[in-house]
C-alpha cells in the first residue's frame, strides 16, 4: 500500500512560481526529485497562464507552490484567479513577508500551507508529504465514489432505490421506486417512508431497523409495503449507511430493494455481485481513511523524533566546538610550531602527528641530555675525589717542606753557633 501511495505521489503534477532565480533553481531541483512533472514559472502572470492552459487541456496541476512578491502579478492575485477556475486546488505559499493583511488574504483564499523564507527543505518536505497524502486520499475517495455511482446507476436500472437524510426524509428515488409505489417523485421527496409503510408491520420492526443503520451497520430483510393504489408488494431490502470522506460520520442512507417474485429473484441474483462490490468499496474507503490517520500519526512522531535528533546534533556540535577551542588553546600555550603553515597546509590529523613527532624528538633529546648530565656528574664525582686526594697530598707536601725549612733553619742556627764556638776557642 505504501509503494502505491509513493508511486501516486510521484505522478502528481506541480506548478512552482518564483521570481528569484536562485531560489527557483534550488527548490525546483528538489521538487523534480520528488515529482515526475514540475513546471517552473518566473512570475505570477506566467504561472496563471500555465495553470489555465493545462486546465483547458484536461491536464490540470495537482499542486501549486508560489512566492508572494513577484512582477506582473503577485502570488495572492495569481491564486485568486486560479481558484476562480479550480477552488479546490491544493496550494502552498513561500514568502519572506508576514504582514497581517497578506496572512488574512491567504486564509481567505484557503491556502493549504504558508512557509516562511529562508527555505528549509526539511520543513517543505514535511508539508508536501501531508498535502500530497491528502491529495492521494481525496483522489482515491473520488475514484471510489465515481465507481460506486457507476454501480448505483446499474442498480437503478434493475432495483428500487431511495436515499434518505439522517432524519429519515427521502432525498432521492429512482424511476423503479416510483413505478412500484405508484407515487410521483415530487410526492415522495421530503416525505418519510411511512408513506408506503404497511400497517401490518409493527413499530418494533422499524425501531430495530433504525437502531441497526444508525450504529453504522447494514440492515437486510424482507417486508411488505403499501402502494398508492392500496395494493401490497414485498421487497427484499438492504439499507446501507453512507459515511463522509473521513469515514467517521454518517451523512445519509441508501436503500436498495428487489421485488420478491420469481422474475425479480432472478434479476436480484444477477446483480447481487454489484451490491457485494458496493460493500467492498465502502470497506476499502474506510481502510484508506484509517491508513491516512495512521500515516499522519507516524508523520507527527517522526517530526518529533527529528526535532529531538536536531537538538542532540546541536548539543554535539557545541561540545565539538568547545573541545576544538580547548585543543587550540593548548596548542597555543604549550607547543611551539609554525601555526600559519600548519593551518594552511595540514589538517588537524597531520598537525597532531607533527606535534607528536616533535614531542617524541624532545623526549629523545631530553634523555640524551639526561645521560650526558649523569655522565658529567659521574666524571665530576671522580674528579672531585682526585682533587681531594691532590689537595691532601699538597698539604702533606707543604707540611714536609715547612718541616724541612724548619730543619734547615735549625741546622743553620746550629752551624752558626758552631762557627762562633770555633772562633772563641781559637
Helix and strand pattern? HEHEHEHEHEHEEHHHEEEHHHH
Structural class determined from secondary elements: alpha/beta
Q: Which homologous superfamily in CATH is the superfamily of the largest domain?
A: Response regulator
* Separate helix tally: 13
How far apart the termini lie comes to: 160 Å
Count of folded domains: 3
Strand arrangement within the widest β-sheet reads: 2-1-3-4-5
What is the C-level CATH assignment of the largest domain?
Alpha Beta
Assembly annotation: single chain
- Low-pLDDT regions: none
What best-fitting shape do the alpha-carbon axes yield?
Answer: rod-shaped
Percent of sequence in beta strands: 5-15%
The CATH level-2 architecture of the largest domain is identified as 3-Layer(aba) Sandwich
User: What is the CATH third-level topology name of the largest domain?
Assistant: Rossmann fold
Mean pLDDT: 79
Q: Rg, please? A: 52 Å
- The tally of strands reads 10
Largest sheet: 5 strands, parallel
Q: What level of helicity do the residues show? A: 55-70%
Keywords summarizing the entry:
Beta-Lactamase; 10 strands; 5-stranded antiparallel beta sheet; alpha/beta; 13 helices; Rossmann fold; 5-stranded parallel beta sheet; 64% helix; 3 domains; 426 residues
How is this structure best described in words?
- This protein is α/β, with parallel strands linked by helices and 426 residues long.
- It folds into three domains: 2-119, Response regulator (Rossmann fold), CATH 3.40.50; 160-270, Beta-Lactamase (2-Layer Sandwich); 347-426.
- It has helices at residues 2-10, 21-34, 44-56, 75-85, 100-108, 121-158, 175-181, 185-188, 203-214, 262-270, 272-334, 339-345, 348-425, and strands spanning 13-17, 37-41, 63-66, 91-95, 113-116, 160-164, 170-173, 219-226, 232-243, 250-259.
- It has a five-stranded parallel β-sheet, sandwiched between helices. A five-stranded antiparallel β-sheet has the order 7-6-10-9-8, sandwiched between helices.
- α2 (21-34) links the parallel β1 and β2.
- The longest helix is centred in the last third of the chain and has 78 residues, at 348-425.
- The chain is rod-shaped and about 210 Å long.
